User: Fold these one by one.
Assistant:
Number 1:
Amino acid sequence: MAANTNIFTEKQTNNWFKAYIALNWTKEGLTDFVVTELINVQKTVGSSCGQCFIQNLIPCPTQDVCKKRKRTNCSFHNSLQYKSCQTCTKVKQNITSLHRFNKPSWANTKAERWAIDPWEIGKCYLPRDGYSSVSSVQASDFNGVISIMLNCTHFQTCVSTACLSPPPPDKQCPLEKVRQIGRDVRHTANCKVTDADLQYFFLTLSTLLSDSVCLVHDPSATKARRKLSDLQNDRISLDDLGKLVIEANQILTQAKRFSEEAERTLKEGLDALEDKIQAGEQSIENKTQESINRIKQAANEKELDEYDRGIAGERLRA
Ligand SMILES: [Zn+2]
Ligand SMILES: [Zn+2]
């Protein structure tokens, strides 16, 4: 049974919501591909000894990694000292030479696990901040997955040339444009996306998911592409809609864009919904509607709140 994906009254808020969901699904669609290719990267860089920690492989101090302070220990190196290990130094060099900008994020990675966990190598290609505790490609976010594809030059061999030309960091690079979509949607000031932008997002994400070198043959990517097309055309099952509403809860809670009160209202409404779905409750449609109303209410409250603050701000400036 199909359900209406238009959860919010405001068209552009619905668009934003769809864009956010589209990004999550795109990330899911890319996950298997990135997992597989990181295994190939691991083979390429060779085996580490398994005994060295990243702190052992980096002299103290090293620019962009750590600073030595007078009298106190370096917070990165702590009690671990630099030591010579030819095996691991070679792997570390290989990781560096596969980095597009020769700047792996060393603080992210656990070198003692390089030989057993390709993800620990993948983490070297993530942005420097915010990913050290992320435990897998699956647990990573959209930005993380795209960053690995952009920063690790191994991916040049498994996506089409068109996807990476002009090469990053050129803003015209198609994969850079994909990353920018993620940023625009995540850092939105008003949770709104125009119809034209939404169409552009769907087209760009679907194009990536059907890249002719590997992704076009990848079942997860194909599935994600189908889901995007269904989302774009409002062909979505009631069950999926329930999941979406729960996802919306998480998104809006994490986003911290809503007032605390609105956030609480959202959370209560959607938690209740989740319980009902898990209990196999038949009246999901009503419950969904109830939660939707709560989101709308919370969004209205937030808008009023912002409006009030805007007025207050103008008064202050005047
Ligand atoms: Zn070693
Ligand atoms: Zn240090």
Number 2:
Amino acid sequence: MAVAEDQAALDEQEALILDAVDRFLERDVRPVAHDLEARDEWPAKIVEKMKDLGLFGATIGEEYGGLGLSAATYSKIVERVSAVWMSVSGIFNSHLIMAQAVERAGTEEQKRKWLPKFASGELRGGIALTEPDAGTDLQGIRTTARKDGNGYRVNGTKTWISNSVQGHLLAVLVKTDPQAEPRHRGMSLMLIEKGEGVSVSKLEKLGYKGIDSGELVYDDCFVPADNLIGGEEGRGLQQILGGLELGRINVAARGVGIARACLEESVRYAQQRKTFGKPIADHQAIQFKLADMATQAEAARLLVEQAAKAYDRGERCDLEAGMAKLFATEAAVHNSLEAMRLHGAYGYSKEFNIERYYRDAPLLAIGEGTNELQRIIIAKQLVARSPA
Ligand SMILES: Cc1cc2nc3c(=O)[nH]c(=O)nc-3n(C[C@H](O)[C@H](O)[C@H](O)COP(=O)(O)OP(=O)(O)OC[C@H]3O[C@@H](n4cnc5c(N)ncnc54)[C@H](O)[C@@H]3O)c2cc1C
């Protein structure tokens, strides 16, 4: 009985939060998304509303000022936001991966210092792993952090880093011992604020506009030893990979959002657009497209839900998160192309949202571990979980 009541209270809390998110999206995001994206403009007013809603603390524990949401509720928020404008979700998603690294691996002092400011959105950021010569193979990074008095001197370049222009700080993966074997033992994660020794430039890209992606150069940048996450060198790769499960569920949820938005706009359009004297929804070829798009979106949603529930139970879920990420992001790519075909020339037009989904969706197959890497992770887990 007590368990059922707890569940009912959680369901009610989730319904209230999702309702608030829906109202925010309809009032503050949908009306401006098209123009801001066309101008590649960072959505300052939307970010202020996101602070009020508590989105920057969505998954941060309540004891540190966050909302303490489950992965299941969080993924539903991400799906909803991405169905309207995916870039808005990136502004709090990457930030929360940084926060999660501190919450899971940081010292108590670090949690008390940083997490309340992350939760309020007073300090915002993301994660800086990728370098010009290392993305999938993170152990190949070259950024170094050399001991200097009561801190480190950091040198190197990070690229394609979300929230790096508008954000205040990043969780940066560095080599504290470049000679270490195996290589991951020489890797550490540290919070680096922007300032002296850090320069950043904005990168141009196909889609995912509005949110800033940047290249950062660290030139003898001094970082206090207190900013080393967990206070111990050599654990950086493990700390960041631990957080990527939630990151993958979140990218998968974005995929569901785009796949669903493409479906909904296609169903609407297919009922309005007429050819040969009837709505195109009455042509069997179009019906097949809609059926396939709906099945893809729904299967993706179920995989995300399964992975999020496993995560919330505290289970190891790289297999489930990998499957969700792989399937849902491919569903987004598939549905965005099908939506474009179904809309004919209007799908190719800047006036409609379809071309934006078509430009945004492929990023999902690259970020948070490419889909090739997801297949490798899934297969390794399949083998590990099945004794020969
Ligand atoms: C808009 C945008 C935002 C981003 N935001 C961030 C961010 O906030 N923080 C961050 O750190 N990074 C970010 N990235 C970078 C992203 O995480 C990397 O692009 C991604 O990890 C892939 O790395 P890569 O581009 O270096 O490709 P590579 O690692 O060079 O891979 C190239 C190709 O080879 C394939 N490949 C690699 N290894 C294998 C293998 N063993 N087997 C089979 N195929 C393989 C890959 O799947 C890919 O198809 C962002 C990228 C973009 C475009």
